[in-house]
Structures are given as structure tokens and as C-alpha cells.
Design a protein that fits this description.
The complex is a heterodimer of chains A (537) and B (48). Chain A has 537 residues and is mainly alpha-helical. In chain A, 74% of the residues lie in helices and 0% in strands. Chain A has 21 helices and no strands. The chains are: A mainly alpha (537), B mainly alpha (48).
């Protein structure tokens, strides 16, 4: 697939690159402490952290991956947003941010240390660091193949340039640089992809035309085909869809430090609670920008699928190539670049924080001055970008980015959510049980993966296998942790104040009007999400 | 760490919008002329 660019397109892309490096440069002199570098000095307003919370999730895996998913599985993919995303984002805002923000932790693994013990923190820090590097590779890969299509450069040269730009702006401006670029990315995605949805619908003859041109009736429904694997394009039953997605989604939104880090950068508790709720609103309408173009890409050529060129991941850039004139093409390509770079930058900032605070400062070189850790964070940034370049080659083996990503989430995040859920809502959960439970959950996920890969168990699609792997990992971690808790020592209650629901005073926001309270916002979001599910049943 | 992101982002989108409007009016004024009788670059640039 080759995208032709005019001079105006190149100008738009070049301005973007100058802008992002410029933001890093301006912020360079403002980094006075490690908290500035890793947590933006906990000074950001809710609208900034909210958009960043959402955009950090809108990396290549989300944008190209879900467009690819829509082309491969149809409207069923809406479940990622309206079934799984909305409840999880409301849950983290109302129930989990009070613990994260209130305990003043600097990272998710650090919370595990306070609630459980050092070894649980280290296990999570190590697995999280590995996962972020693998996911960074996805974004870098996507950026590299986009540049390959645009410029015709070899894959490795694209990795070098794209990785270099990200490394520069994170090295200079840390989390703040990443967050500001995520805010910019949000607006670029709206302005870059909304015309694609409009022109796409026009090209297929409106919504009715789109539905009539999809490869099978199952493509046009979110819920109607969920109950039997043979009826929906994803090839998964209702139980697997609902529970698998909920486990993966709650695991992601509630424990993935990449997004939680944005909420921790908020200026106060209320802003931190509003962060996921503000993010949930644009997230709810993301299917218009991402799912719809994926559906149009398959509807334009459902039989031969020449437009996709053999890879579902081509759905979005291929449609842009077909429908966008010069000028708008520049905005669209810049939106893609911004999405990939911000997605990667988000993972890199999460990695450098966890590496510095939870691994280096604890196990390698404790007790150094604050400036030393900021330097280590900067070096970790360079290291993460280099390793992401290597992991990008792993992604080449998958024909759908989202399959690969959900595999990682099922392995790392599904058991972690079980550990957090028990830790926050059952004060008896013991540190040793949590550690062994987490380890067992990941081992269970690995076992499931091997059984599937060697055909001892079978599913109708990769995604179905991922969903069941998540359920398997969650159930094992949950069960093992509960059973072992009865045979091991729990922490005394006085050490759990602020960390466990039953021992913590939750923020009541009594001085706020009813419509300004996080609980009201969460309720409104759930009602709207329910309405969308019904409309697109 | 005082730095208001609204200014630079706002200016960037004004620059992008202007580029699109100028390009749309000068290069392909008759492309995509329905229903606004302007190229999509022109009207989307105006939106930006």
C-alpha cells in the first residue's frame, strides 16, 4: 500500500514534528525534580489529564487495531467501548482513584507494595516493564510501516527516525511533554478522522448503504449475534465475550499504569476522579472515528478485499488513501503519526517511571539524591525506545495488531485485576497469597496460550482465545489468592487504612453541586452507554 | 511548571486550518463541491 502525498501534506507533517519537539524543548527547563519529570508535579487540571488519559490509550493499537478489528469482526467491536470500557472507566474513577491518589503513590506497583509487600511490587514492576516495552513496539511498528508507505524508506530506517523523535521529546520534557502531546493528539484525531467517517459514509451510500454492503448480517450488530460463536464474525459465545472483555477491560483501565499515571498527575483528588470520567465521554464516541472507517473499508470491497491489501491493519490508511484529497491527507496522516507517537510515548513514560521508582531506586541504587533518579529516568527513556525498536519486529508476525495486544493484556493485566480487586475490597487478603495468586494467574495464562498454540484446545478466532485466556488467568489468580489467604497471615488493619475500601473514608464531595459530583457523571455515562448499546443492538 | 497548552495547540490548528483553506481554494476549488459548493479542504479548514 502506498500513500501519495503532496507538498502541502508534507508541510503539515513537518509542522507537527517541529511542534512536538518544540514542546519538549520548552518544558526542558521546567523539570526541577523527579516528581516534575515522572508525575508532572501533580499539577494538571482535570481536562488536560482527562484528554491525556483517553489519548494515551489511543495509540496505534487502538486506532489501527480497532479499525482493523472492525474490518475483520464488524460492529461487534463496539463491545470494547460500550460494554467494557465505560463501566471500567467509571469504576476506576469512583472506587479506585481514591486509593491511588489518596495514598500518594507514584506508581501502580508502589501501591502493591503498600497493600501487600515488596515482592508483589517487584513482580508487577518487572512484568509491567516488559509489557510496556512490547506495546511500545506496536506503536513503533505502526509508525514505521506508515512511513514505509509514505516515503518508501526501509523498515529499520523508519524505526530510527520515529523512535528518535519520541526519545527526544520524552527525554526533554518527561510526563508533561507526553501529556501535552496527547492533548494535541486528541484534537488531531478528531479533525483528522471525522472527515473520513463522513466521506466514507457518503461513499457507501449512507448508513443503510453501509449495512447492506457488509460481508454478512452479523457485521452490522453489536449484541444481536453475541449468543453463539457461529453467528458473530468474532466466533465467540456470549459468556466469553462478556466476561472476557470485562476482565480485560477492568484489568486495563483499573491497573494499567500508562493511564493511571495521567490521573496521578492531576492537581487534586477531585481532578483525579474526574480524569477517567472526562476521558469516557470522547471514548464513547470513538467508534464513529475508528470503527466506522473500518466498516467502510470492508464494505467498499467485501469480496476481494483489495483495498486492504491482505492486512486488516491497512484499513484506516487505505481508506484515507482512497478518499482524502491532498491537504486533508496531511491532517489524516499527521493524526496517525500523533497517535502512534503518543501511544509509544505514553508507554515509555510509564516504563521510565516504574523502572526508576520501583526497580532501580528499590533494588539497584537506593538512597541517591533526587536529581540522580531524574537522570536515570532520562536514560531509561532512551533504553525503552531502543528496546521498542527490537520488539517492533515481533509484531510483524501478527496479521492483526489488536489480537497481539489483547494477548498481552490477557497475560499481564487480567490476573493483576484479580489481585487489586481482592486487595482493595477484602481486607483479609494476605500479601503472600496475593503474590502467589498473581504468579499463578500469569502461569495459568501462559499454560492456556501453549494449549491453544499446540491445538489441545480450540477457538473460532484469535480474539476468542484471548478472551478465554483472560477469564482463565483472572479465575486462577482470584481462586488461588482466596484459598491461600486462609492459610497465611494478613496485614494488621492499622497498616491498611487508605488502602482498603472498608477501612477508608471515601471522598463525599459534599460541597459540590449534585451535577458536578463524579458519581453523577459516572451515572450519566453509564446511561448513555446503555442507550448506544440498545440503538446499535 | 506553568505552561498553558491551549495557546500553542490553538495556534497550531489556526495554522493548519489556514493551510487547508488556502490550499482548497487555490488548487481544487471544484472537488467535493456538494453540498457546500467548496472543496472539502476549504470547509474543513474553516472548521479547524
Amino acid at each position: 500500500m502506498h500513500i501519495h502525498l503532496a507538498i502541502v501534506d508534507y508541510a503539515i507533517i513537518a509542522i507537527y514534528f517541529v511542534f512536538v519537539v518544540g514542546i519538549g524543548w520548552v518544558l526542558h527547563g521546567k523539570m526541577k525534580s523527579s516528581e516534575d519529570y515522572f508525575l508532572s508535579g501533580r499539577s494538571m487540571p482535570a481536562w488536560v489529564t482527562g484528554l491525556a488519559f483517553m489519548s494515551a490509550n489511543l495509540g496505534a493499537l487502538e486506532v489501527m487495531g480497532h479499525a482493523a478489528n472492525a474490518a475483520k469482526y464488524g460492529m461487534f467491536v463496539n463491545h470494547f467501548y460500550w460494554l467494557a470500557g465505560m463501566p471500567a472507566m467509571c469504576f476506576v474513577a469512583i472506587f479506585m482513584m481514591p486509593f491511588y491518589y489518596g495514598s500518594k503513590v507514584r506508581s501502580v506497583p508502589e501501591f502493591l507494595k503498600l497493600r501487600f509487600n515488596e515482592k508483589t511490587r517487584t513482580l508487577n514492576a518487572m512484568t509491567f516493564a516488559s509489557m510496556t516495552l512490547l506495546i511500545s513496539g506496536i506503536d513503533l511498528y505502526a509508525l514505521a510501516i506508515l512511513f514505509q508507505g509514505l516515503l518508501g524508506w526501509p523498515f529499520w530506517a523508519n524505526l530510527l527516525v520515529a523512535g528518535g523523535v519520541v526519545a527526544i521529546y520524552i527525554y526533554l520534557g518527561g510526563l508533561t511533554s507526553s501529556i501535552y502531546n496527547e492533548v494535541l493528539q486528541f484534537f488531531l484525531i478528531v479533525f483528522g478522522f471525522l472527515p473520513l467517517a463522513i466521506l466514507g459514509l457518503k461513499a457507501v451510500g449512507g448508513y443503510a448503504g453501509l449495512v447492506s454492503k457488509l460481508p454478512s448480517p452479523g457485521y452490522a450488530h453489536t449484541w444481536a449475534t453475541i449468543w453463539h460463536p457461529s453467528q458473530n464474525p468474532m466466533g465467540i459465545d456470549g459468556f466469553g465475550t462478556i466476561f472476557g472483555l470485562l476482565v480485560i477491560s477492568f484489568g486495563y483501565w483499573c491497573t494499567e499504569f500508562l493511564v493511571i499515571q495521567r490521573a496521578l498527575a492531576a492537581k487534586d483528588m477531585l481532578a483525579s476522579q474526574r480524569t477517567p470520567l472526562i476521558a469516557a465521554i470522547p471514548k464513547m464516541i470513538c467508534p464513529v472515528l475508528i470503527i466506522l472507517p473500518g466498516l467502510v473499508a470492508i464494505a467498499l470491497d467485501p469480496t476481494t478485499q483489495k483495498l486492504l491489501g491482505g492486512r486488516y491493519d491497512n484499513a484506516l490508511p487505505a481508506l484515507m488513501s482512497k478518499l482524502y484529497p491532498p491537504g486533508l491527507m496531511g491532517i489524516g496522516v499527521t493524526a496517525l503519526c500523533a497517535s502512534f507517537m503518543s501511544g509509544m510515548a505514553g508507554n515509555v513514560t510509564a516504563f521510565n517511571t516504574v523502572w526508576t521508582y520501583d526497580i532501580y531506586q528499590v533494588h539497584i541504587n537506593p538512597g541517591k539524591p533526587d536529581g540522580h533518579y531524574m537522570k536515570v529516568g532520562r536514560l531509561a527513556t532512551i533504553f525503552a525506545v531502543v528496546v521498542a525498536g527490537a520488539t517492533a519486529f515481533i509484531v510483524l508476525r501478527f496479521n492483526n495488531l489488536m489480537d497481539y495486544l489483547q494477548l498481552l493484556f490477557a497475560f499481564f493485566l487480567a490476573p493483576l485485576f484479580a489481585t487489586f480487586f481482592l486487595g482493595m475490597f477484602w481486607k483479609r487478603t494476605s500479601p503472600n497469597a496475593a503474590f502467589v495468586g498473581l504468579l499463578s494467574g500469569m502461569a495459568g495464562a501462559a499454560t492456556h496460550y501453549m494449549l491453544y498454540r499446540f491445538n489441545f484446545i480450540g477457538y473460532h478466532s484469535e480474539m476468542a482465545a484471548n478472551f478465554y485466556q483472560a477469564i482463565w488467568a483472572f479465575a486462577i489468580c482470584f481462586s488461588v489468592t482466596i484459598v491461600l489467604t486462609f492459610f497465611t497471615n494478613s496485614k494488621p488493619e492499622e497498616e491498611l487504612v487508605g488502602l482498603v475500601y472498608s477501612l477508608t473514608e471515601m471522598p463525599r464531595n459534599k460541597g459540590l453541586a449534585w451535577y458536578a459530583r463524579p458519581g453523577t457523571w459516572a451515572l450519566a455515562i453509564l446511561v448513555l452507554a446503555t442507550a448506544l448499546n440498545i440503538i446499535f443492538w | 511548571m506553568r505552561f498553558d497548552i491551549r495557546w500553542p495547540v490553538g495556534i497550531l490548528f489556526i495554522v493548519y486550518g489556514t493551510l487547508l483553506v488556502v490550499h482548497g481554494m487555490s488548487i481544487q476549488a471544484f472537488a467535493y463541491d456538494e453540498p457546500l459548493h467548496a472543496s472539502i479542504d476549504t470547509w474543513w479548514g474553516g472548521v479547524m
